[in-house]
Amino acid sequence: MTRDASAPARGASGDFERWKTTLLTLPDSTFFDIMHNYLGDLRTPFNKHSLIDELYAFMSRPETIERILLQIDEQDSRLLSAIEVLGEPEVDRLFSFFSGAMSYLELHHLLLNLEERLLVYRESTGGATRIAFSPILRERLRLKVTSPAVLFPSYPIDRAESRLPWLSDSLLLALFSYFIAAKGSLKGDGTLKKRSKEELIVVFPTLSVGSRMEMALKALTRSGLLQPRGGELVPSVDHWRSIASLDPHSRASIVWAAALEGDSATGGRRRIEARAEVIAGLLANLDPLRAYSGASLAKIASATAAGRSGERDDFGPAAAALLIEGMASLDLIVTAHAAAGLESESEGKLYGASQVGWSDELREERPAVVEPNFQITVKPSLPFDRGLDVALMAEIRRFDLYSHYEITKSSFTRALELGISSGEAERLFELLGDAPLPQNVRFSLDSWQKEFDGLSLSRGVVLTADSERRHLIEHSEAMRPYIRKQLAPGVYLLDPGKESEWKEALRRAGIGTIPIVRGTGGPDEAGIADPFHPVATGTLLVKRRESGDEQNQGRPAVDLVADASRHRGELLKALEALSLPDELRQDMEARIRKKLILYETQLRFAASRQERTEAKGLDYVGKVRLIEQALDGGTDLLEILERQAKGGARRLLVKPLQLGRVGDDLLLSGRLLPEETPVQIKVRKIGLVRKLRGSLYAP
Q: Which of 351, 440, 324 is nearest to 163 (CA)?
């Protein structure tokens, strides 16, 4: 085999340098084993940097890359696709993703094989070790091999149910209006009274379907939007203002996550927001033209959760399956049917993305219209923050495709108490309705405002100033927005929620020394201590491609069965033609099946260095020697088949720590992987021991 010692141009030099540095840190035995396998007999004296350049040049040859790709099978493709989808993750995160599909020992074998074939390597950064693609092959693997469709099978949609999620912005606003006016809605045990349930069904017919009422109430109470107080469920206006400030998908995802919380769930707001990110990420990854099985959706959800710190351990396959079931009950995903001829290939029931639309993104003329009879018709397109003001000023009468409200004296007085004036209300209604407000409605709003102003209670910070400073305050443009009311000469009512702003305005007005605000011990309006936070959708796992792209059709771009089998057969045939001792022939055959041999010429030199890695049966001394070698190596692991008392056996992956004598036998002490739990095994009970590298790149 001829070798080109000159390394080719490297587009991603940073990636190459990290890969090179990792190779340079390998133990000599491992380093030269790799070089010997791929480069053949090595000339002395050795220069590791030059050898790595030679290896890079050899691996970068188009023919070599083609042969590497030919040996990739479906199992390789699944693992490589997972590494790509999860963003070159840590091993534990990869194992979590495949939980239930393969054991840790199986994953270890597969990863070690990919490392030996130089497809991936382990890169240590910031105290963590992640699985990274070889810089030589990264782009070719992404182009030809990795595909989300390998992990998340989907099918072209023939038809799907057409539904919108029922727990919508419109419903939330209508429920806010209902509960802010409702009295005595709870029984002594904290559950909803029968009368209240009956009223809810009359006003909200949609809540009579299945468990929708229970889910809606759970969404509002678990999120803190409704809070039990004095026998009533009372909306927390501060929480509603906070969630209204979010973008539409964040708000909806939080409410949906709260609706799907388990009865025994702990973790409060942070857990709900974490689960909201999983929901948002899953929905963002669904192609509206594809149908997915429940298993595929659960896998996407698990991958989305795995992308978040702190979301790895409590979101396994069972939790993902429950989430998918809950999302279906919210109509976030709907029943779908694959195109003709593909139904038989699908895994049971199929789902598609529902028509999730955000009110803030819809555009309709006149989203809220006020009639002379004080009725307000509200369309789903009304932006949430504007809709919250409408729901404050009016009482919901019936919720349907459109929401029907009515302005009453009590509802408008409630809005006045919360700081909305009749002038602001009139301007809002005229803006939303794109028409003048009916004269009789305007007259009533102004009359109720006048009556309300006849007696007032104000909460805020009272500022008193002497005559000199009074002049500075009253002539300051900067202070004007923060003065709610002048109570008397030199006495002003300020907004406590904007203390930092009006203190700065006072300084700009020329007042250098500002005293601290002395409290009275009463409630204030500083807002909630824990506002809602925006929800991120995370990484786009299922990349949307052009319709003609093979990856978007559910297949990687190389044939992963026929080509690999044909290439392996050619190498085995070439091996048969060589005159080799049986033990050496067996070692060469094992290397071929492990896909470490790319060219026939490698067969002549790849196994010149042999090392025994397995002992079984009655070979007690061989088992002990392998255990001792693993202990001396420091990073090797042991695959052990332990015989059980009742005739069975269990297969273990063990990190060896000590070999000691107990009576007439030796006792191996170590830790089981991946749990890291202590284990002790008598050597006489070991049916097979196989020494494994912890990783090709183990420190």
A: 351
